[in-house]
Each structure stands twice: as structure tokens, then as C-alpha cells.
Amino acid sequence: MIQKVSVLIFLLCSLSVCSQTTVKIGVAKYNGGGDWYGNPTSVPNLVAFCSENLKMNVEAGTVDIGSSEIFNYSMIHLTGHGNVVFSNSDVKNLHDYLLSGGFLHVDDNYGIDKYIRREMKKVFPDAEFEELPYNHPIYNQHYKFPNGLPKIHEHDGKPSQGFGIVIDGRLVCFYTYECDLGDGWENPEVHNDTKEIHQTALRMGANIVQYISTH
């Protein structure tokens, strides 16, 4: 009986520790002139959504891509419309962060594509962005997206696509292209989004947060 009680206490303590694990999201500050600071309400809204709907402890901050502080974050969120430039020290820092278990989410806010592809080649010269299949776990967390990445905003009539960089079997970077996911996280009145669009974007964002907390 004593043994069973001890096992029960151990399991309850383990669950308590897991429930208290904090996922930290860092909004990436980078050089090159791109508006890394865009969508100021998006990540705070995602944090609140995950806390309420997934019962997760999630925090957010801003971090320079070249700072050692990125190692304090579970996920780095990088967005913008324009140019992105990683210095040699940025490249090494991001490379080491991702190989040590970190995760990068790049969200194309329309116009970042050619720049982020160029810069990520510096980080992983031998890796390519590959489109993730619809059955990938990132689309099948608490919320199900059987058709892959949702389309939040329209620009050039292109479909939304979710690309990934996989290193040694682990997804280290998820790139949401032609989707405007972060715009959808913002307060709905910013882009005149419907409640449905806003919720869809937040659910996909919550899947990313949940994925990195379990992989």
C-alpha cells in the first residue's frame, strides 16, 4: 500500500512540474531594415490564447538574434515585410541555438521571402526549406488542420504553405509563407478580420507553441 501511495505521489508531482513548465517566445530583433517590430499585438494575443485554451504557461519578450539571451527562449518568432540581414555572429548564434534545441518560427508578413531564404542559407548551407506534409504533427496538435497551413490574408493569389528546415530528424525552423499568420493573431480591428479568421490564426499559432513544448 505504501509503495502504491509513493508511486501516486511521484506521478502527481511529475504532473505538477510539467504543468508549470513555461514556454518562452522571443520576438526576434534583426538588422537589415525590415520591420521586425510589426504586429505589436500578435504575440501577446497568442500568449493569452495559449494560456486560456491550452492551460499552458507562456511568456514573451523581445530578443536580438545575435544575443546569448535567445538561449533563454523556447521559440524565436521572426516576422516582417522587408530585408533581413544576419551578421556572421548572428549566424553562429542562431545556428548554435537551433542545434541546442531551440526553434525558429518565421512568419512572412508579405515580402520577407527572398531575404529569409538567403539568410537561412548562411545558418544551414546544406539544408533546404521543404514543404511539410499535411499530416505533420504541427498541423495535428490540439487543433486539427487537415489541409495544412490556413490562409489568413490574401496577397498574390498564392496558396499558403508551411515550410520547414529539418536537421538530424528534428524540425528546427517552421516558415509560414503566404499566410499572414501573425497578422491574424493581432487584434481583429487592426486588419478588419472576422472572429473566425482571428480564431483560426490563433489556433494554428497555438499548435506551433504546443508542438515545440512536446518535441
Task: Give the secondary structure arrangement, pairings included.
Blueprint: H1 2-19, E1 22-29, H2 42-53, E2 57-64, E3 75-80, H3 88-99, E4 104-108, H4 113-123, E5 130-131, E6 161-167, E7 170-177, H5 181-185, H6 188-191, H7 195-214
Helix pairs in contact: 2-7, 3-4
In terms of structural class, how would the helical and strand content be classed? alpha/beta
Helix content: 25-40%
Strand arrangement within the widest β-sheet reads 2-1-3-4-7-6-5
Instruction: Give me the number of helical elements.
Output: 7
- Note the gap between the termini: 36 Å
Q: Provide the low-confidence segments as ranges.
A: 1-19
Q: State Rg.
A: 18 Å
Order of helices and strands: HEHEEHEHEEEHHH
Tell how many strands the DSSP assignment holds: 7
Describe the structure.
It is a single chain. This protein is an alpha/beta fold and 215 residues long. It is built from seven helices and seven strands, in the order H-E-H-E-E-H-E-H-E-E-E-H-H-H. The chain has helices at residues 2-19, 42-53, 88-99, 113-123, 181-185, 188-191, 195-214; strands at residues 22-29, 57-64, 75-80, 104-108, 130-131, 161-167, 170-177. It has a seven-stranded mixed β-sheet with strand order 2-1-3-4-7-6-5, with helices on one face. Helix 3 links the parallel strand 3 and strand 4. The longest helix is centred in the last third of the chain and has 20 residues, at 195-214. The protein is globular. Mean pLDDT is 91; it is low at 1-19.
